[in-house]
């Protein structure tokens, strides 16, 4: 079972308390009416799906119920970092250097 | 390749079974091929077989990073059925089911296809309405499926608990008698042997590092751990790793890779006559010919390439099985494992062309690729050989995520796929 650190509760808790919420840092388009079909496809359906560090959203559903972001290695399932929603996307190189 | 037959068994008995030949040679890569297929699972090997048999293209290599059939082909729960809601899906999966029927004879290899019936349980009013809609839709499409009352379901599968005070009461079931199971490894081995007999090279333990493209953008070959191998056409059939392989050709995919777990019990005498799926409580079960109960459920919630998955899902699955079949309460489980499945947004597969010239893809089978093996292989081979999709896989394009013409089994199926 994954142990996940909620950055709001500041506690590391079992996976059962959390719901996965897909890839992080996919910004909703600011002016949808000007978007082409290709741009809609990329926004709605295309995902990076990397084998390695993945930026993703989680929600602490059985706790504070808030969304937050995480960086997790999809090969080892180890979390490199969790951080609050709205914070900038962390730099991957410095994260891996810190490990 | 000598044919397998009762006569061959007797003949080899005379020499103490010491003169059986290998089933296929372990090939080393040539400089160039007409077609390279990335991924030696059932789908990839099958496509190579149909390319050779139906289209006369025998200068083909199937390349895998591990051993053949060691990915999802060797990790699934072997369920075969075709009771999908939409016309496009029904045609595709029923095409596969038609090919399953004669597969052992065609390949001269016993894939142990057993039409033991797949029964899907309805636990609430919504399930009843949804499954009855499936039954009617299937019948309009000529796909076998029928509705059973709870008592009929119990008669068909005696271990089932249909008591009204059960934790998950059974209100009826949909039964596809034409559906069943097959021996998953034998499917890969049978296709490999039949393809190799027609001249296909099977190259194992050779990871594809990147797909290489020429100055005009068209595919020129693949970079592998054993060096560059040229190819006129490349077909990617790499299941959970499709995103990674396609990214190297500059194509971003509408896929996410999740772990899908399964487990087996200790072997016991025949006790379970069919396959039962319960999509509402997310568990399915059958008994292998070795006697093990084969149990599976849905994917883990997070994307991963770890081929493991978490224990909470296994606990949930086994709890559901024990409620529905109290007879298995004290059964001990032997082992569990995970495979990495590539899931599309609409839960339907992608078989077809890509924006890159001479690059083809077969992916997005999610949690239900095994049942489609012959159909996927057959239509992929047609697409690669002719450059245009077969009418059966024509709707399953990569482009549908741009046009919006989705095949939305995600919303309609109510299945664990």
TrEMBL record, chain A:
Q: Which InterPro entries match?
A: SoxD, SoxD_sf
Q: Which Enzyme Commission number(s) are listed?
A: 1.5.3.1
Q: Does the keyword Oxidoreductase apply?
A: yes
Q: Which domain of life is it from?
A: Bacteria
**Record-level Gene Ontology MF annotations:** sarcosine oxidase activity
Q: Which UniProt keywords apply?
A: Oxidoreductase
Protein name stated in the entry:
Sarcosine oxidase subunit delta
For the keyword Oxidoreductase, the answer is yes
Q: Organism, per UniProt?
A: Limimaricola variabilis
> Pfam families, per this entry?
SoxD
TrEMBL record, chain B:
Q: Which domain of life is it from?
A: Bacteria
Q: Where in the cell is it found?
A: Cytoplasm
Oxidoreductase is among the record's keywords: yes
Asked if Nucleotide-binding is a keyword of the record, the answer is yes
EC number, as in UniProt? 1.5.3.24
Q: What class of enzyme is it?
A: oxidoreductase
Fetch the Pfam families from UniProt: DAO (PF01266)
* All copies of domain Rhodanese, residue ranges: 35-79
Q: Which cofactor does it need?
A: FMN; FAD
Q: Where are the transmembrane segments?
A: none
**Reaction catalysed?**
sarcosine + (6S)-5,6,7,8-tetrahydrofolate + O2 = (6R)-5,10-methylene-5,6,7,8-tetrahydrofolate + glycine + H2O2; sarcosine + O2 + H2O = formaldehyde + glycine + H2O2
Q: Which PANTHER family match?
A: FAD-DEPENDENT OXIDOREDUCTASE DOMAIN-CONTAINING PROTEIN 1 (PTHR13847:SF287), SARCOSINE DEHYDROGENASE-RELATED (PTHR13847)
Query: Its family?
Result: Belongs to the SoxB family.
Any idea what this protein is called?
A: Sarcosine oxidase subunit beta
* Source organism per UniProt: Limimaricola variabilis
